[in-house]
Amino acid sequence: MYGLWRPRVLGAWRVPAAGPVILAVNHSHVIDGPMLMGTAPRPVHFLIKKEAFIGPLDPFLLGIGQLKVDRESTDRAAVTGALGVLENGGVLGIFPEGTRGEGDFASLRAGLAYFAVRGGAPIVPVAVLGGGERKGRLLPALPPLRGRVDIVFGDAFRAAEPGGRRTRAALDEATVRIQERLTAHLENARRLTGRAG
After folding, report:
1. Cα–Cα distance, 15 to 123 (Å, whole number)
2. Assigned CATH for 6-193
3. Cα separation of 2 and 106, whole Å?
4. What long-range pairs does 75-83 form, CB within 8 A, spacing at least 24?
5. Strand 123-129 to strand 148-153: parallel, antiparallel, or no bridges (unpaired)?
6. Number of Cα atoms under 13 Å in the Cβ half of residue 151
7. For helices 111-119 and 76-87, angle between their N-to-C axes, nearest 10 degrees
8. Using CA atoms, how far apart are residues 43 and 36, in angstroms rounded to an integer?
9. Residue 112: in which H helix or E strand, if any?
C-alpha cells in the first residue's frame, strides 16, 4: 500500500487498544479493504465475498484471517465466524453498504447493526478518501498510483444499549442511528482532509 499510494492515517488512536470492535468502512475502491488492513493499528478481519477467494488468493486471505461470505444467501458460517472474531476480542471490518459504490453510506444493510448488537462491540467509523475523479482513468476502481489516500478513523460509539432488545425493530433503529453517525463522520472527514471523496 505504501509503495503504490501515499496513505495518510488520521485518528488511529480512536480504535480501542483491546477488546472487540467493528470498523465500519465506506467502500468506493477495490483497495479500501487492503488499505485499511495495512494501516489500522490492530489486525482486521473482513467479511469478503467468496468470489475473491480464487487461486493463490484463497490460502493467502484465509491465512491472514479474512472471512469468506456468500452474498447470495444467509451465510451462517460467515456469521458465526464474524461473531467469533468479536467474542475473541478481535477487530471485525465491515463495508456497511455491502458492496463497492459511491462510498457515501447512503444505503446500509442490516448486517452491521446485527453484529454490533449481537456482538456487543463498539463501532469505529472509517472514511477512506482519495479516489478523486474516476472518469477517464485506466482502472476506475483504483485511486491514481502514488496519489494520497486518507484513512480517517472516527470516535467509537455503540449502536444500542448493552443488553438491549434484539428484535427486528431494534435492529432497524440501530441501523438508522449507525447511518447517522457514519454519514456525519464522512462529512467531518471530508472537511478535515479538504476532499470531496
Report:
1. 9
2. 3.40.1130.10
3. 29
4. 78/47, 82/45, 82/47, 82/115, 82/119, 83/115, 83/118, 83/119
5. antiparallel
6. 27
7. 40
8. 9
9. helix 111-119
Cα→Cα distances 8→12, 36, 38, 143, 148, Å: 10, 11, 12, 14, 7
For the chain, domain boundaries: 6-193
Instruction: Give the C-alpha distances (Å, rounded to integers) separating 163 from 109, 142, 150, 187.
Output: 22, 41, 35, 31
CB 126 within 8 A of CB 99: no
Grid cell digits, residue 178: 449507525
Contacts of 193 (CB under 8 A, 6+ apart): 8, 10, 129, 150, 152
Residue with cell 459511491: 102
The angle that helices 111-119 and 168-193 make with each other, rounded to 10 degrees, is 110
Per residue of the chain (197 residues), give pLDDT as tens. Answer: 667 778 899 999 999 999 999 999 987 777 788 888 889 999 999 988 888 888 888 888 888 888 888 877 777 888 899 999 999 999 999 988 755 444 444 444 567 888 888 888 999 999 988 755 444 444 556 667 777 888 999 999 998 776 656 677 878 888 888 889 998 999 999 999 887 65
Reported pTM: 0.84
Alpha-carbon distance 160 to 110, whole Å?
14
